[in-house]
Amino acid sequence: MLLKTFTLGGVHPEENKISSGQPIRKAPIPKTAVVPIAQHIGAPAEIIIAKGDKVKTGQLIARGQSFISANVHAPVSGTVTKIDEFMDSSGYRKRAIQIETEGDEWIGTIDRDEKIDATIKRSREEIIQLIKESGIVGMGGATFPTHIKMMVPQGKKADCLIINGVECEPYLTSDHRLMVERGEELMIGARILMTALGVEKAYIGIENNKPDAIDHLTNLSKRFPGITIHPLKVKYPQGGEKQLIKAIINREVPSGKLPIETGCIVQNVGTAIAVYEAVQKNKPLFERVVTVTGKSVRNPCNLLVRIGTPISVLLEEAGGIPTDTRKVINGGPMMGKALNSLDVPVIKGMSGVVVMPEKEARRPKISNCIRCARCTFVCPMGLSPYLIAQMAEARLEERAEAERIMDCIECGSCSFTCPSGRPLLDNIRVAKSKVGQIIRSRAK
User: In the sheet where 46-47 sits, what is the strand order?
Assistant: First the structure.
């Protein structure tokens, strides 16, 4: 069978799915949880509790008041001991709520019965409201508030849903394990999202290196009309929204536009399961599955982790920090970012922690661009990364904008393939941020 894939660019990094066979297990509840109030794209949530307050697991502690924002809930029960600025995974100090854990008392509205509920009783409006109240965001890493994504703009129409089960980043296996272990909840979550969008078709895209997930969901799909499973060719960055849409339904998102322009909404596997929990179990998003892995890691694993848990706790669960460690990365090695502290907390969009040994983490020596155009050949967006990176270094933001810098999905394929070791993505990211600021200032 000829497997589907996107047509433009792409690379084939070593997969390193070391933890793919490790079942999900619960991480210890942290003694102290640090919960950032900005775990999403958009405005930070507004804190509604105070120092000294007692909170329960699942209780709302910060409310998303702006149009693009998301609620934040207590991941543990205990006492609020501090509201201050704490270091986050990006290396900046951001406002967060510190909770000292005392037991694990959940709010009474959460249905903790493990029996799976497949009956969808909620209306479209009720589903979107529950998603909003539960603080669900894109859990593949983008962290866009899910309720906003489900509100199709006036004049646009969705005709299908795509569930992203690709997980193309090397090392990461959290979505793989969710599909294998919680496939039925995923399918029900997809049906709930279909109801909210008013569509009859849903496609679940999975790379062909996950045959157990493909077989399991294919069998389950027989009970869920309208949902089909699509094995995909293994190629990075297959999991990008625009690449996935092209691969599955052969539609292209126009430059500068969103996926809804193609009549499609894309949601991550973890997001769909969180939607199931919110709508069927009234459970807010306060925990997620995180892969902890690396070639030198003693016990690579997939952990169900409370938001706010320090990264150090996860590494201890994986057997400790190897002696040859050079970097610890939030996310995968292609799009992830190195952490400067192991005390930073797990947030909603953190799908993996990858420990890189000295040999793999060391960057190549930077030399002059040899004009080989490899970065152009592999760019999945059809850009010229070498040119945009040069404009970024020269601070020519307006010219970079004209070269479609904002279409860059920051996949890192250009840096990965560059024989001169040039930090193309690093430069592009800096300039992209500045161009974004310019665009927003024009809109005021």
Answer: 46-47, 60-63, 72-73
Rounded Cα gap, residues 183 and 394, in angstroms: 49
pTM for the model stands at 0.96
Q: Are strands 287-293 and 301-306 parallel, antiparallel or unpaired?
A: antiparallel
Q: Are residues 275 and 129 in the same domain?
A: yes
For residue 141, the SS3 value is coil
Query: Which residue do the tokens 């005021």 mark?
Result: 444
CA distance 62 to 308: 14
Nearest alpha carbon to residue 427 among 417, 435, 438, 439: 435
Annotate 392-427 with DSSP letters as a single string: HHTT-HHHHHHTTGGG-----HHHHH-TT---HHHH
262-311 pLDDT per residue, tens:
999 999 999 999 999 999 999 999 999 999 999 999 999 999 999 999 99
- Residue 420's alpha-carbon distances to 244, 366, 411, in angstroms, are 30, 6, 18
| Three-class secondary structure of residue 318 per DSSP | coil
Q: Residue 99 and residue 30: Cα distance in Å, rounded? A: 10
DSSP string, 89-104: TTSSEEEEEEEEE-S-
273 and 138: one domain? yes
Q: Give tens-digit pLDDT for 217-269.
A: 999 999 999 999 999 999 999 999 999 999 999 999 999 899 999 999 999 99
**Separation between Cα atoms, residue 442 and residue 431, nearest integer Å:** 17
Number of folded domains that form the chain: 3
- Bridge partners (DSSP) of residue 337 are 330
Q: Domain containing 267 — which CATH number?
A: 3.40.50.11540
Q: Looking at residue 1, what is its pLDDT?
A: 57
Q: What angle do CA 90, 353, 181 make, to 5 degrees?
A: 130
Please list, in sequence order, all residues whose beta carbon lies within 8 angstroms of the beta carbon of residue 222, skipping any fewer than 6 positions away: none
Which of 360, 385, 400 is where one domain is finished?
360
Q: Is the pLDDT of residue 364 over 60?
A: yes
Q: Using CA atoms, how far apart are residues 374 and 384, in angstroms rounded to an integer?
A: 10
**pLDDT digit string (tens) for 8-22?**
999 999 999 999 999
Note the pLDDT tens digit of each residue in 81-139: 999 999 988 888 999 999 999 999 999 999 999 999 999 999 999 999 999 999 999 99
Domain, as residue range, for 206: 124-281
Q: Do strands 352-357 and 325-330 pair parallel, antiparallel, or not at all (unpaired)?
A: antiparallel
- In degrees, rounded to 5, the angle at the alpha carbon of residue 354 between the alpha carbons of residues 284 and 234 is 90
Distance separating alpha carbons of residues 70 and 64, to the nearest angstrom: 5
CA 434 to chain centre: 23
**128 and 159 share one domain:** yes
What pLDDT was estimated at residue 443?
77
